[in-house]
Amino acid sequence: MSPDPLTRQTYEDAFGNNLEYFSIEEDHSELSVTSVSIIENDYKSVDEKWNEAAKISWKEIKDSIRENDYSILQFIAPTTITEFNCDIKEFAEKIFSKNTSFLICVKTLMQTIFTDWKFSSGFTTIATPPSEVFKLKKGVCQDFANLALACIRSLGLPARYVSGYIETIPPEGEKKMLGADASHAWFAVFVPNYGWFDFDPTNNKIPKEEYIVTSWGRDYFDVVPLKGVMTGFGENTMDVAVDVVKM
Question: What is the rounded distance in angstroms from the CA atom of residue 92 to the CA atom of residue 78?
């Protein structure tokens, strides 16, 4: 980091993410933050749990959520950028049949968003509501994640926003996935006794080893990679570069 911060502190937020706070109190015209990590992913345990978890219907999951389970309830309540309207709720109800497997319904939702919505950058902002994305049928990874969250939460079910990265270099003969050159967004749903299962509607994929999770929360504003307060004057710009390679 440059310049060196006067204060630096690490802590864990309410969602279990590791955060770092820093304060720079000297005059500076440029701030540079570099993060290098070696990540070890293991999705085998998720694959092993899938078949058993897929036997549970979404109605069973909804009925099993306790009123005092705040760690899960916080992922059911809509937020400013994941609010649903009547159209979104009706759309979700068509996909989620009463006694159908929850995970299979979520997979269908993921596939439907991938098929029916167009990936279009520059159309939305971080504050674009799902109702706009639903109506105009286009957006980016963040919008598709928020739309899925709105659908699932409209039924009173838990879902969380996931932020991370995708391996930059695709396997030989395969196309680079959308979102591979910057931070990516997808969503995850909760199945009691089995944990969280991830889905990427932008690429119509169940995340595997090429996905790197950095944080999760109720929506994007819980997982912003870098945020803070700056005092000064004049214009400012931000440059971001990401590289993910397999070792």
Answer: 15
pLDDT on residue 177 = 67
Residue 192: asked if its preceding bond is cis (omega within 30°), the reply is no
The strand pair at 138-139 and 118-119 is best described as parallel
**Dihedral sign, CA of 12, 185, 142, 231?**
positive
**pLDDT value of residue 37:** 77
Residue pair 166/179 in contact by the 8 Å Cβ criterion: yes
Per-residue model confidence (pLDDT) at position 53: 94
Specify the pairing of strand 184-191 against strand 159-166: antiparallel
Full-model pTM: 0.86
What's the token pair of residue 163? Answer: 């932020």
Of 35-49, 105-119, 158-172, where does the model show the most confidence? 105-119
Judge whether 24 and 6 are in contact, CB under 8 Å: yes
For the chain, strand residue ranges (E) read 7-12, 18-23, 118-119, 138-139, 159-166, 184-191, 195-199, 211-217
Residue 213, φ and ψ in degrees, nearest 5: -85, 130
For CA atoms 228, 230, 234, 239, give the dihedral sign: negative
* Structural domains of the chain, ranges and CATH numbers in brackets: 43-222 (3.10.620.30)
User: Which two structure tokens, joined as six digits, stand for 120?
Assistant: 């279009």
Contact 201, 152 (CB under 8 A): no
Structure-token match 């990874």, residue found: 141
Cα–Cα dist 56/48, whole Å: 15
